[in-house]
Amino acid sequence: MAESVKTLAALRRHIASLEGVPASQPHARVETGYAPLDLALDGGLARGRVHEFFAATEEGGAGAGLALILARLAAGEAPLLWLRTMAAGRAGGMPYGPGLAALGIDPARLLIGAMADDAMLLRAAVDALRCPALGALVVELRGPAPLLDLTASRRLALAAESSGVTAFLLRVGGDPVPSAADTRWRVAAAPSLPLPGNGPGRSAFDLGLLRRRAGRDGLGWRLVWDNGRGMFEGSGGGRDERHGLGQDGSGREGGGRDGQAPLSGAVVSVPADRPASDRAA
């Protein structure tokens, strides 16, 4: 039964691509489940777009974890592909099955492609995004990644829009440069509350919205992943904990580690989705 459902979903995506319609799933947004964040994004992350995540540390574990969770939400029951270089595998290590399961990711549904260098990685990413049967794509780049310029990111954006496949660029140890990404984020690990019996707490992230093409940016949230429900929640049990970004883009006041001050004012939605060819400029 499960195989029939996956086959039918892939067929629908293929037909949509032949008709020239973005092969997005029934909703045009990837919902995180955390209402304040989804509301600020007009319903969630846009499908069929490129979203860029910058890890706050050189290790990049929090960025990888969040990118994989969001990619899993975007993919649903379809395959999830993670592309990285062999050097990235040596630096960041290989994924751990039980750890993936704790993030709600079925290791059997995750495909990992190891490329020789960034040039091969970006070519493979464009080819992968042209496949409408793919659920979502994570592309990991470490260091400055000079080949990921505005032209390369525009190729990725056009391929994503054509197929409806959502791409998540994981940047570790690199600085933001002009790109055609729909949104740009800073991700850092956050402390989590211990479970009963002093067990390890749930995965928590400090998430800062650095840039958004179709709306307001400069906001930050602390998210906790509830694997049992398959959704995010705020660290305060559902309260809106929106913050302004500090100078370091981390969501902390003044770039410090403490004293997160809420940002006053309502979020104003600007529904101005445009093709990548217009947005890349």
UniProtKB/TrEMBL annotation:
Compositionally skewed regions (Basic and acidic residues) per UniProt: 238-256
Positions of the UniProt region annotated as Disordered: 234-281
Stated name of the protein: Protein ImuA
